[in-house]
Known about the structure:
Number of helices: 11
Oligomer: single chain
Order of helices and strands: EHEHEHEHEHHEHHEHEHEHE
CATH topology of the largest domain: Rossmann fold
Largest sheet: 6 strands, parallel
Radius of gyration: 17 Å
Number of strands: 10
Mean pLDDT: 92
Strand content: 15-25%
Helix content: 40-55%
CATH class of the largest domain: Alpha Beta
Number of domains: 2
CATH architecture of the largest domain: 3-Layer(aba) Sandwich
Amino acid sequence: MNTRTLAADQPIGVFDSGMGGLTVLRALRAAMPREHFVYLGDTARLPYGTKTAATVQRYALQAAGRLVTLGVKAIVVACNTASATALPAVQAQFPDVSVFGVVEPGAAAAAEHGGTVALLATESTVRGGAYQRALMRRGVQKVQARAAPLLVALAEEPSAAPHIQAAIIGDYLSGLMHSADTLLLGCTHFPVFVQQIELQLAGRAVVVDSATTTAAEVAASIVPRAHEDRGEITLLATDGAERFRRVGARFLGEPIHRVELVDV
C-alpha cells in the first residue's frame, strides 16, 4: 500500500475479474457507508485464476488504469489472484493512488487464530504462493493449499441444486481439513458458500475471508467524506451487464439496478 493522506471527495475504485469482488465492495460499504465507490468487473476476461501471471498483471494494470481515469482516490484490488500476482506492479504504475490488496489482510486475519491454516483458492493464487508466504511471515508454521476452480463457476450459478453444491464443496474440503485449525477463503467468490462450508466443517475450524479486514485497512487510511448521506456506487462491467446485474446481487447483498458496459 502507498502511504499518503487521501482526499475526501473522490470515489474509491474496486476491481475484480468478475462479480466475486462484490463481496469486498459489500464489506467496504458496511465499513464506510458514506463513501462513493466505482466497481469494475472484468467479466469479458474472467476467470483470472487460470491465467498466467503475465496475463493477470496486464489485465490488472488495464483495469486499474480505467479506474484512475475516473478520478478515484484509492484502488482496492479485490481479486485474490490479481492481488497475489500484480499488486506491486499496480502500485508502481500508479504511485499517486493508494492501492490496497486482499492477500495481506486475509493472511493477517487467518494468522490470528494460529495453528495450521488451510487455503482454498484459485489455481493461480495457490500456484503463486503469495498467501503461503504472507502466512509464514506471520508465524504460521504449516499451510495446506488446494485450488477450487469449480467453486468460482458454481458461485455464479445460484440455480445449482443444493446437493450438487454440497457435494462439490465436500470434495474440496476432504483431505484439506483433517489437521487445519483455520480455513482461509482465498477467492472473493467463496464467501457465498460460508454457511455450507461451516455446516460441513461442523465447528472443526474457523472460516476466514479477507473482505472485512481489507475494508478495515482501507477505512483506517482515508479521509472520510463529511456528508451525512449514504455514498453511491457505480458498477461497471466489460461484458454481460444483464447477467452481472442479476447474479451480482447475490454477492453484493442488495439489488443491482444498473450496470454500465465499458472497455479497458
